[in-house]
């Protein structure tokens, strides 16, 4: 297991917690107000290894492996991989750690779960950072269609062709095709979404791919995509009561760009802070960790 260190050079604390019927692995470090970090696909807590030391002087950071990922349980599909179930998972984790209210930052699929958490536990989430994601049923699927516009989206000012969404949704087929070639597939896929491919280290790839090759790892990852239609139903219900808490968004020109702010504006009373990071791709916490940390501190602490 690759290690993460805080701002003082101390290793983060690893833990296991029983939360919402599963056993979750998480890391925690730092001091100050609690900040929950929710990773995307196909990653785990190690995604935050550059960002955590920039935050722990100001926040008590908690970074779990989400359901189906890393060292957290990967239950059968019928046990639920949708956004609201994931929101309940991390809410139970934070409650068990003694954090009654907290800030939340999510990227990629973790941002959708962060939105669901803010919408279902409004008394607990103090601020929301929703980054590099669109919501299921609210625009995400439209960018997965095989159209001339989507195929060429990467060459335009905004938009991206997320071809993998319907592919990962198909039962069994992705597992059959990816198994045995995990390194080739995931390294290409992750780096293709970046502005700077070298920002994705060999250590990070080794960590994520070893988890994907472990029992249930690849299936757990795919189940988060197979929950997309349930996520869409969740979001259709959740958006009927708009979010009122302070929200920040960050997009990257190599991926969702300005679409991220537009997305949150539709489901809230307004976005307080928004940015599109120049010369950056989908993995914000690895490609623009300094800019992201500064924006999180300003948004959540006012400094």
Describe the structure.
By secondary structure, the protein is of the alpha/beta class. The chain has one domain: Rossmann fold. Helix content is 38%, strand content 17%. The chain contains 13 helices and eight strands. An eight-stranded mixed sheet has the order 1-2-4-3-5-6-7-8, sandwiched between helices. α7 crosses α8. The chain is globular and about 50 Å long. The model has no long low-confidence stretch (mean pLDDT 96).
**Count of DSSP-assigned helices:** 13
| CA-atom Rg in angstroms | 18 Å
Biggest sheet: strands side by side, in what order? 1-2-4-3-5-6-7-8
| Helix/strand order, N-terminal first | EEEHEHEHEHHHHHHHEHEHH
Extract low-pLDDT stretches.
none
Count of extended strands: 8
Shape: globular
Gap between N and C termini? 33 Å
Task: Report the portion of residues in β strands.
Answer: 15-25%
- Helix content, binned percent: 25-40%
Number of domains: 1
Write the layout of secondary structure elements.
Layout: E1 13-19, E2 22-30, E3 33-38, H1 52-55, E4 59-64, H2 83-96, E5 102-107, H3 109-120, E6 125-131, H4 148-151, H5 164-169, H6 173-178, H7 182-192, H8 202-213, H9 217-226, H10 228-238, E7 247-251, H11 259-267, E8 273-276, H12 284-287, H13 289-301
Parallel strand pairs: 3-4, 3-5, 5-6, 6-7, 7-8
Antiparallel strand pairs: 1-2, 2-4
Helix pairs in contact: 2-3, 7-8
Q: How would you summarize this macromolecular structure in one to three sentences?
A:
The protein is an alpha/beta fold. It has helices at residues 52-55, 83-96, 109-120, 148-151, 164-169, 173-178, 182-192, 202-213, 217-226, 228-238, 259-267, 284-287, 289-301, and strands at residues 13-19, 22-30, 33-38, 59-64, 102-107, 125-131, 247-251, 273-276.
């Amino acid at each position: 297991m690759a290690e993460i260190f805080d701002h003082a050079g101390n290793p983060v604390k690893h833990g296991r917690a029983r939360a919402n019927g599963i056993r979750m692995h998480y890391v925690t470090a730092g001091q100050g107000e609690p900040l929950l970090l929710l990773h995307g696909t196909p990653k785990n807590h190690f995604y935050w290894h550059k960002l955590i030391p920039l935050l722990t002087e100001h926040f008590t950071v908690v970074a779990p492996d989400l359901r189906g990922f890393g060292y957290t349980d990967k239950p059968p599909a019928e046990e639920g991989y949708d956004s609201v179930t994931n929101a309940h998972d991390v809410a139970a984790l934070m409650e068990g750690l003694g954090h009654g209210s907290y800030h939340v930052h999510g990227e990629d699929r973790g941002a959708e779960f962060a939105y669901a958490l803010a919408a279902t536990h409004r008394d607990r989430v103090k601020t929301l950072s929703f980054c590099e994601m669109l919501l299921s049923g609210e625009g995400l699927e439209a960018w997965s269609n095989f159209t001339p516009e989507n195929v060429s989206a990467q060459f335009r000012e905004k938009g991206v062709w997320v071809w993998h969404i319907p592919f990962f949704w198909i039962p069994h087929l992705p597992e059959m095709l990816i198994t045995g070639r995990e390194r080739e597939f995931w390294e290409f896929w992750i780096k293709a979404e970046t502005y700077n491919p070298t920002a994705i280290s060999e250590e990070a790839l080794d960590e994520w791919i070893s988890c994907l090759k472990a029992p249930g790892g690849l299936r757990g990852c795919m189940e988060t995509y197979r929950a997309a239609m349930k996520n869409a139903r969740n979001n259709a219900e959740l958006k009927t009561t708009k979010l009122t808490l302070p929200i920040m968004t960050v997009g990257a020109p190599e991926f969702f760009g300005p679409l991220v702010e537009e997305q949150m504006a539709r489901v809230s009373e307004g976005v307080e802070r928004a940015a599109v990071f120049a010369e950056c791709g989908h993995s914000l916490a690895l490609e623009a960790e300094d800019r992201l940390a500064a924006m999180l501190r300003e948004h959540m602490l006012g400094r």
